[in-house]
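dumping this here before i forget
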Amino acid sequence: MKVLLIGSGSREHAIADALARSVHEPKIFAVMSNRNPGIIRICESTGGEYFIGKITDPQFVREIGERVSPDFAFIGPEEPQFHGVSDALEEAGIPCVGAREKLSEIERSKAFMRRLMWKYRIPGRLRFKAFKNVEEAIAYIKEYAESIALKPARQAGGKGVKVIADIQAYLRRERTEVKEKHAKKIYEEHMKPYDDIEDKILIEEKVDGPEYTLQCFTDGRTVLPLPLVQDNKNAFEMDIGPETGGMGSISGKGFLLPFIEEDEFRESVKIVESVVRALEKEFGMRYHGVISGQMMLTALWGPTIIEFYSRFGDPEGVNVLPILKTDLVEISEAVISEKLHKMKIEVEEKATVVKAIAPQGYPNRRDLAKGHPIAVDERAIEEQGARVFYGSVNVDNGRLITGGSRAVEIFACAETIEEASKIVDKCVKYVRCLDGWGLFYRSDIGSSTLLHRRMELAELVRNVYRYRRSKGIIGIKIDWIPGVGKIVYES
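structure:
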């Protein structure tokens, strides 16, 4: 058996590792944009091969696929899906675990995702406005003083999101200026590389609560959830600093997080199922691959959608794939043949923590974070009971060179999240830049302090949304405007 993997980050390293554990002993082939040492090792040890090139070029990937002739392909990142790589492989007769281009619109366009949820009345939706140019967005911002989330309308690698609360009337002018400046930054910087969607800026109503990610396999008919994971996107300790692609993530023992209850997990799965059905109605094709809901527990709805991924999250995928007991090759075959209803997801009963180690300069000055020789003592890390998954590094003449993003992710599992976190912390010293360039990571991820904060916030939100549900006003926002009276908004 042969499997073709597309992608070269930590997530793809974890996918390759899970595929290689299969009882079917597949040969792993990989198409990568950089020489990931972990994926290279797996390709070589299984008798496969790797190819370096543009993973978003459908023709290039198709040619590799036709040369390798794999039993199936597995696409890790989102951008190859957005560029039609899945379609090209399927047209070449290579079945693919990875969304077709049209179906991946659920991630590529946040405005499309919002419109879809409103069209099909799917719970967990938010009010929003999408704008094709910055002038219209600024005109709206000046007219309405609201607490909002400002976002690029397209998936932009987790960059550009800014949440601004408008609660002090005396600061309205200052906050309006901040909103205008950020709208311009989104348009001029974060959306500049992309011309594949018309909408440029998304403005959503602001909601608060703990975030979590629900990652699922689907064949378009059945949705099989994996354990919940919480990502921590801010660069620095205690959730401050710029947003990143994710500095680390946690998962609890079993399928729940310490701050998410069973009924909330079930509701989250129903939302994902509803979106999968809606996508089939929209495009007339079934979704084969991984779909993930980036969610928040809010007072407005309870489980609420912030955005969707058409793939595993990174680092969230690294939490669940190493503890996956069900054979990933067999899951993939069930996805392709639409027999996922016959599968059952089993995982080790362990809590997991993943922490990313990144060069100084990430995320805002990737040019500074790039090009540094880095050393990783894998043996020492494994002796501590942890594992390394390689991310933005490149093998160059036998040396590992940083690529400007998160260099490695360290994974550990234990009986509790706090224990797993401490294991990872012991391993950080075994990763260093040989030229003395600084590295950083977040020691607080998985700490009892941060967990306690999440649990307190969840309980506060839970009390409100359950009260609202008991009164029949779930998903409804009510404002009182002096001189006007009560205004009811349906979400």
